[in-house]
UniProtKB/TrEMBL annotation:
It catalyses: ATP + protein L-histidine = ADP + protein N-phospho-L-histidine. This is histidine kinase. It is an enzyme of class 2 (transferase). Keywords: Kinase, Membrane, Phosphoprotein, Transferase, Transmembrane, Transmembrane helix, Two-component regulatory system. It is found in: Membrane. InterPro entries: HAMP_dom, HATPase_C_sf, HATPase_dom, His_kinase_dom, HisK_dim/P_sf, Sig_transdc_His_kin-like_C, TCS_sensor_his_kinase. Residues 250-447 form the Histidine kinase domain. Gene3D superfamilies: 1.10.287.130, Histidine kinase-like ATPase, C-terminal domain. Its EC number is 2.7.13.3. GO terms for cellular component: plasma membrane. It comes from the Bacteria. Residues 191-242 form the HAMP domain.
Length: 447
């Protein structure tokens, strides 16, 4: 995949939600249907086994012991199914000596006997016609007989399978109808639930086409934070664009006068000194506005943290080489845990300009300190230079707050520092230092 290839789209969110919900629903209905079918079959077979046991008790009541120790039926059962050959209904009595008394439906066949007891036993067996039988049996002791006789009654399981199969078919139809209805409900629910996302997409198209400046729709609480985040990004982009326009306008306005002077000089007898002065002025104006534009573009990004002490130490090391001949003492008093919420370059620009300015005006000493308050990072840069009056301090603060074109005054550095501080949501203040010179306080949000 090359950079020119469009990004591959994942499966639709609607399809994912519907497939996941439908799969889980079908699994639950299948498991529930199987459990219900097995429970119904077990209940039917249990009830059928009790019916067979009732017939077994009737057979026991009809058996009498004949002279010689044999068994005989004293009266017929009255159920023709036991008289029809291989009808699927059988009874069998096995005497203690192994002789058997059987129903006519068994003819000359027999059902294998398994050891049992006086309680009812239920099992499955194969009949004389290879049919599947449900067998109910128990051992019964008769008066005058030594040992217990084994009596069983068996019936073809098809007697109950037909009803069970009809129930299973009805259950499948009911569960299938329920599944279809619930899947339709899931589709409606998912599409209705995701309607705000489609509305957000339509609003984004309006923003892209210029019909709106931001997302203005009413969104549910789950996606409202997403809309607010998008609006923050749109507002930030709009702010950056407006700043860029302002910088371009200011630069164009500031260059008009120098360009007019250069044009006039070129048309007449050009004065090299005048031209050099105007070129230097234009270069300074360009650097001024480029510095402010860079400061505006580099702020406002989330998730960044910069250690304050390492930046201040790095700036001190550079300034120590620059002002080595003057023997300035630059003290840095910053706790290791102090963090700036923003780009390292922004903090380097702030420290670099403030500390360079302090070194420029200091006599012997510059002090740099910082502390992490609850909601703010407080930075202070002081020097023991001549300082400035309160009126001049107010003028510096006023100029620092303005973004339109002004003569640099205290220089380009403080203008850029002022822009960086305010673009990062902080405040800049000037006062008289305890060392005797200027004290510059910077408060930057730490959250």
């Amino acid at each position: 995949m090359t950079a020119a290839d469009p990004p591959r789209r994942a499966t639709s969110l609607v399809v994912r939600l519907i497939l996941a919900a439908a799969a889980w629903l079908l699994l639950l209905l299948a498991v529930g249907g199987i459990v219900l079918a097995l429970a119904f079959r077990g209940a039917v077979e249990e009830e059928f086994s009790y019916r067979l046991d009732a017939i077994l008790k009737t057979i026991v009541a009809s058996i009498e012991v004949v002279p010689g120790g044999g068994f005989a039926m004293s009266r017929p059962l009255g159920d023709p199914r036991f008289d029809r050959l291989y009808s699927g209904w059988y009874w069998q009595v096995t005497q203690p000596d192994g002789r058997q008394l059987r129903s006519r439906s068994l003819w000359d066949s027999s059902i294998p006997v398994e050891p049992g007891g006086p309680d009812m036993q239920v099992r499955r067996a194969e009949g004389p016609n290879q049919e599947k039988l449900l067998v109910v049996e128990r051992d019964v002791e008769f008066p005058g007989q030594q040992g217990a006789a084994h009596v069983l009654v068996a019936s073809d399981l098809r007697e109950v399978s037909g009803g069970v199969q009809r129930f299973e078919l009805l259950l499948m139809l009911a569960l299938g109808t329920l599944a279809f209805g619930m899947i339709v409900a899931i589709v409606i629910q998912v599409r209705y639930g995701l309607r705000p996302l489609r509305q957000m997409l339509a609003d984004l198209r309006s923003v892209r086409e210029g019909a709106a400046a931001r997302l203005s729709g009413r969104y549910p609480s789950e996606i409202a934070p997403l809309a607010d985040g998008m609006n923050d990004v749109l507002d930030k982009d709009s702010e950056l664009i407006e700043r860029a326009r302002t910088h371009v306008g200011n630069l164009a306005h500031a260059l008009k006068t120098p360009l007019a002077v250069v044009s006039a000089e070129v048309q007449g007898n050009a004065d090299r000194t005048v031209l050099t002065k105007q070129v230097q002025l234009m270069r300074r104006l360009i650097e001024h506005h480029l510095g402010r534009a860079r400061a505006s573009a580099g702020t406002g990004r989330l998730g960044l943290k910069t250690p304050v002490r390492s930046v201040a130490e790095a700036v001190r090391a550079v300034l120590a080489k620059i002002y080595q001949e003057r023997g300035l003492e630059v003290d840095v008093d910053i706790p290791p845990g102090a963090m700036f919420r923003g780009h390292r370059e922004d903090l380097e620009e702030i420290f670099g300009n403030l500390m360079e300015n302090a070194c420029k005006w200091a006599i012997r000493r510059v002090r740099v300190s910082a502390q992490q308050a609850q909601d703010n990072l407080l930075i202070r840069v002081e020097d023991d230079g001549p300082g400035i009056s309160a009126e001049r301090q107010a003028e510096l603060l006023r100029r620092g707050r303005r973004l339109d074109e002004k003569s640099p005054g205290w220089g380009l550095g403080l203008a850029i520092v002022s822009d960086l501080v305010h673009l990062n949501g902080g405040e800049l203040a000037f006062s008289k230092s305890e060392l005797g010179g200027l004290c510059v306080d910077v408060a930057l949000p730490s959250r």
